[in-house]
Amino acid sequence: MTQSRLAEKLDYTSECQQQRIESRETSCSVDKLMELAQILGVSTDYLLFGYESACRDDMEKYMSGKSDREKEYICRVLDAVVSNMGVLLNGERRN
Asked: Is 36's pLDDT higher than 80?
Protein backbone atom coordinates (compact mmCIF):
# COMPACT_ATOMS: atom_id res chain seq x y z
CA MET A 1 0.00 0.00 0.00
CA THR A 2 1.37 3.40 -0.90
CA GLN A 3 1.74 6.18 1.64
CA SER A 4 -0.78 8.30 -0.23
CA ARG A 5 -3.34 5.46 -0.20
CA LEU A 6 -2.78 4.88 3.51
CA ALA A 7 -3.08 8.61 4.22
CA GLU A 8 -6.35 8.60 2.29
CA LYS A 9 -7.70 5.66 4.33
CA LEU A 10 -6.75 7.50 7.55
CA ASP A 11 -8.55 10.65 6.33
CA TYR A 12 -5.34 12.70 6.30
CA THR A 13 -5.38 15.53 3.77
CA SER A 14 -1.85 14.64 2.68
CA GLU A 15 0.95 12.19 3.33
CA CYS A 16 2.76 14.81 5.42
CA GLN A 17 1.07 13.99 8.74
CA GLN A 18 1.63 10.28 8.22
CA GLN A 19 5.30 10.84 7.37
CA ARG A 20 5.76 12.93 10.52
CA ILE A 21 4.27 10.09 12.60
CA GLU A 22 6.48 7.50 10.90
CA SER A 23 9.60 9.62 11.51
CA ARG A 24 8.54 10.13 15.16
CA GLU A 25 8.32 13.91 14.79
CA THR A 26 4.78 13.75 16.14
CA SER A 27 2.42 11.17 17.58
CA CYS A 28 -1.05 10.04 16.64
CA SER A 29 -4.14 9.55 18.72
CA VAL A 30 -5.05 6.18 20.14
CA ASP A 31 -8.05 6.15 17.81
CA LYS A 32 -5.79 6.64 14.77
CA LEU A 33 -3.40 3.98 16.06
CA MET A 34 -6.26 1.49 16.35
CA GLU A 35 -7.55 2.48 12.92
CA LEU A 36 -4.08 2.07 11.41
CA ALA A 37 -3.68 -1.38 12.97
CA GLN A 38 -7.04 -2.41 11.55
CA ILE A 39 -6.20 -1.10 8.07
CA LEU A 40 -2.84 -2.88 8.04
CA GLY A 41 -4.19 -6.05 9.65
CA VAL A 42 -1.70 -6.01 12.53
CA SER A 43 -1.96 -5.49 16.27
CA THR A 44 -1.27 -2.24 18.05
CA ASP A 45 1.50 -4.15 19.86
CA TYR A 46 3.17 -4.67 16.50
CA LEU A 47 2.90 -0.99 15.59
CA LEU A 48 4.18 0.21 18.97
CA PHE A 49 6.77 -2.43 19.82
CA GLY A 50 7.58 -4.22 16.58
CA TYR A 51 6.20 -7.59 17.62
CA GLU A 52 2.91 -9.33 18.13
CA SER A 53 1.83 -10.15 21.62
CA ALA A 54 2.43 -13.88 21.95
CA CYS A 55 0.50 -13.84 25.20
CA ARG A 56 -2.76 -12.95 23.46
CA ASP A 57 -2.39 -15.95 21.14
CA ASP A 58 -1.61 -18.15 24.13
CA MET A 59 -4.65 -16.88 26.02
CA GLU A 60 -6.92 -17.63 23.08
CA LYS A 61 -5.45 -21.14 22.95
CA TYR A 62 -5.89 -21.67 26.71
CA MET A 63 -9.47 -20.36 26.72
CA SER A 64 -10.62 -22.14 23.57
CA GLY A 65 -13.24 -24.77 24.27
CA LYS A 66 -13.35 -24.03 28.00
CA SER A 67 -16.56 -23.59 29.95
CA ASP A 68 -17.34 -20.28 31.64
CA ARG A 69 -16.42 -21.84 34.98
CA GLU A 70 -13.06 -23.03 33.63
CA LYS A 71 -12.35 -19.59 32.12
CA GLU A 72 -13.14 -17.95 35.46
CA TYR A 73 -10.74 -20.32 37.20
CA ILE A 74 -7.97 -19.53 34.69
CA CYS A 75 -8.51 -15.80 35.29
CA ARG A 76 -8.34 -16.27 39.07
CA VAL A 77 -5.08 -18.19 38.74
CA LEU A 78 -3.64 -15.42 36.55
CA ASP A 79 -4.78 -12.77 39.06
CA ALA A 80 -2.98 -14.68 41.82
CA VAL A 81 0.18 -14.96 39.73
CA VAL A 82 0.18 -11.24 38.87
CA SER A 83 -0.53 -10.25 42.48
CA ASN A 84 2.40 -12.34 43.68
CA MET A 85 4.86 -11.73 40.85
CA GLY A 86 7.56 -10.41 43.18
CA VAL A 87 7.35 -13.47 45.41
CA LEU A 88 7.37 -15.79 42.44
CA LEU A 89 10.37 -14.14 40.79
CA ASN A 90 12.45 -12.70 43.59
CA GLY A 91 10.95 -13.74 46.86
CA GLU A 92 9.65 -10.15 47.33
CA ARG A 93 6.12 -9.40 48.54
CA ARG A 94 4.16 -7.04 46.26
CA ASN A 95 1.55 -4.74 47.83
From this structure: yes
Q: Model-level pTM greater than 0.70? A: no
Q: What pLDDT, on a 0 to 100 scale, did the predictor assign at position 68?
A: 92
In our burial notation (b when 16+ CB lie closer than 10 A, e otherwise), range 51-63 reads eeeeeeeeeeeee
CA 5, CA 16: separation in Å to the nearest integer?
A: 13
3-state SS string over the chain?
Answer: CCHHHHHHHCCCCCHHHHHHHHCCCCCCCHHHHHHHHHHHCCCHHHHHHCCCCHHHHHHHHHHCCCCHHHHHHHHHHHHHHHHCHHHHHHCCCCC
